[in-house]
């Protein structure tokens, strides 16, 4: 069953001058994770805001758990959890205060709100910080608290808008762990991200969006196949460039790309290709300065899907972007 | 609908918790009006002659009370705008809570803050020689008037905060509204000294009618005006009530609708 469905969504800002969504359609199968991948301004946040009833589309329709988001927003709000691009919690209050407040607003009652707050703080490893104002939290802690706040009533459907943007690698890892736990619990998740790696890690299916519309969709493996998988990248001394290029060409069987002293080419056999290249370099007595297998980045995906690099094309809702970066 | 009150109170509680965490806000929001009391009582007050028994301070205090509750309009507006900007309102709007609760709750919180500020002001007034001469009931009614006026104005603050959205602009816009309203009135000086056109404005100004109503309830005769012989200056109680009802009848539905439709 499709738990989240968006059909032909169109949304413009500034009286039609800025097109945020241009006939965007997507759906999420129950109990799966859809990663919505795209650069800043592609329409990710707008999509989430429409599905979470915060914004009305100019045209098109959307349902969440079979409920029309435009006609029955109140009903939708009862079944979803939303965690935004930056922590939407009260910064002057403590983590505990915030969670209890949100519990009360979900009408859990006083004792239940308190119990739930304690439970969530425990689960998200925030017990030590529970009585401190959010202001004093690190970026990762804020995000975890924000996520906790969206899980108070254990929603079956969760929207996470760029849950790791702005986090350091460690915070990102932690957040991924938390999200993976959630997914095991059976929620249906729609997650937006700018990072292919993140979508790869967390999503069952990926929808790539650009300029307000879905331009590709499929599993991570599928997408990578379209993009051409991994690239072998070797950097050598300038006088070895020509010989190295020959070696790379042989290993890759694709066109090579030379930039300065770095030679790269797509490879389909992964680490096998890497070893082959190393052996050949060794035989030729070339000492590489750097050698790596690079996974395709969002830019690579965009380049191969659209022929242009990921650019920031659209300004998202005026005061959405003014938050912390 | 059945959760309107309880949801609103949760929001109010949040505001009180905020105040408890940053007590500076409370301190500064009470220091400012106290400064006004001292300024007008001792700096300007000396050169304003009045035949009011008990002196200028008797006329001044009701004026300062009204000014103080009027100024909270700006803090209502900027507090709301701040929440909008931080995305907190988005989170509230994604919850299954009653529609007006977020804004209603804030007006409750500001009302409580107003009570506190009025108490501090009354004490400050007493210290500098303010002595209302009417009965206890009448004085209480005067404070009820002040409180109700502050509450009605906070709904304008809500609307301004929702429309302007940028906290610093809101603060400035709030003062742009409250400054002329409080000074083009009978609050600090007799309207008799003003040019005729201003005099009419000042006497129809809701700030003046509430000030006049309070003066009456606190037992004063001298109204610092009533020269234009306008209806409001002769019926300050009725006019003030009418203004408050009118303000709320306009701005409550307007603000709640604006809140529902606003996309952050």
Structure description:
The complex is a heterodimer of chains A (325) and B (264). Chain A has 325 residues and is an alpha/beta fold. Chain A has two domains: 224 residues, Rossmann fold, CATH 3.40.50; 65 residues, 2-Layer Sandwich (Alpha-Beta Plaits), CATH 3.30.70. Chain A contains eleven helices and 14 strands. In chain A, the strands form three sheets. Chain A has a six-stranded mixed beta sheet, with helices on both faces. In chain A, helix 3 packs across helix 4. Chain A starts with a strand and ends in a 19-residue tail after the last helix. With 264 residues, chain B is mainly alpha-helical. Chain B has one domain. Helix content of chain B is 76%, strand content 0%. Chain B has eleven helices and no strands. In chain B, helix 3 packs antiparallel against helix 5, helix 3 runs parallel beside helix 6 and helix 9 packs across helix 11. The longest helix of chain B has 31 residues. The radius of gyration of chain B is 19 Å and the shape is globular. The model of chain B has no long low-confidence stretch (mean pLDDT 87).
List keywords for this structure.
heterodimer, A: 325 residues, alpha/beta, Rossmann fold, Alpha-Beta Plaits, 2 domains, 11 helices, 14 strands, 36% helix, disordered C terminus, B: 264 residues, mainly alpha, globular
Largest sheet of chain B: none
What is the terminal separation of chain A in angstroms? 37 Å
Given helix and strand content, the structural type of chain B is: mainly alpha
CATH topology of the largest domain in chain A: Rossmann fold
Q: Could you list the spans of chain A in which at least 5 consecutive residues all have pLDDT below 50?
A: 313-325
| Count of folded domains of chain B | 1
CATH class category of the largest domain in chain A: Alpha Beta
Compact description:
Chain A has 325 residues and is an alpha/beta fold.
